[in-house]
Amino acid sequence: MRAYLAIIFAMIMVGGNIPLGKLITETIPPTSFAMLRFISSSLVLIPLAMMELGDLQSLRRLNVRQWFEITCLSLFGAVLFTTFMLVGVQYTPAINAGIISSSLPAVIAVLSFLILREYISARTAGSITLAMLGIAILNLSDPSGHVSSAAATSSQSAIWFGNSLIFAAICSEALFAVLSRRYAAIIPVWTLSLLVHALAIPLTIPLLVMMDDGLQLPSASICFWTIAGYYILSASLLSFYFWCYGIRLIPASTAGIFTALVPVTSLLIAVLALNETLSWLQVAGLSFIFLSLWLGLSSKRRPATNSNPSVQES
């Protein structure tokens, strides 16, 4: 029971952070906040990693190729995911970001086939098609829920750009999920999280210089820093730990069911806290992606099929 609760808490935190990211980037540039997140998380994770048994031994056994792969984990799972997501929510409603994030299992299935050569069943192929159809429907809608015409407004173009960045973030996180399969089993949780966030600091510097002209910290209210602190704590520590705790005790295919909590949480917060409106086209897009999720998970429950890896938020 504890494992299931851990997975549920992890997915609720992931979904809640999507609309919170939209609030945060209204005050601080996305790349500056990403750098702040990585530095703060690394400082908190250092004592936690030092308490884990076997952390030094696990790191000493890593070869050059494995260190390169861990650097890729940091690049995709931390730097690119955070940057794409925070920039993307500046251009598209948080509702869209939450809906697009629910296509993650389908994206993981595609990458598992391309990278790991895992078999894609007919049901999984149908799941991927439905997910892409749901995302395409979102790109037809404007904030009022109307279908875009040839004379599309600049607002509609911005939403399409934002949707593309959110999908790029999902692809980055899916790459992280695929590449991290082997390391979650050989490196303790806090140590692996520290590596991912510490390596993200130098990787973020070029983006910080290009996009923000250096680190920019605003003179914000206590309310802002409370929200920012919760985002950092939940994204870098709690959701990562809860996911790793749960995934070790229950099958990945079963844990994947709870990814449905990500768009649900995002939608609730976007509608209730950000006063966003759910249009009929967004409902249609969400329906296709939920159908995609159901179809993909029903194929995983068949004994002959291999489980695909699931997301873990870094």
From TrEMBL:
Entry-linked SUPFAM superfamilies: Multidrug resistance efflux transporter EmrE (SSF103481)
Keyword Transcription regulation attributed: no
Recorded topology in the membrane: Multi-pass membrane protein
Span of domain EamA: 2-139, 161-295
Pfam families named among the record's database cross-references: EamA (PF00892)
Claim: Transmembrane is one of the keywords in the record: yes
Any one of the GO CC terms: plasma membrane
Keywords, comma-separated and alphabetical: Cell membrane, Membrane, Transmembrane, Transmembrane helix
InterPro entries attached to this UniProt entry: AA-Vitamin_Transporters, EamA_dom, EmrE-like
Chain segments annotated as transmembrane: 33-54, 66-89, 95-116, 123-140, 160-179, 186-210, 222-243, 255-274, 280-297
Location of this chain's protein in the cell: Cell membrane
Protein name: Threonine/homoserine efflux transporter RhtA
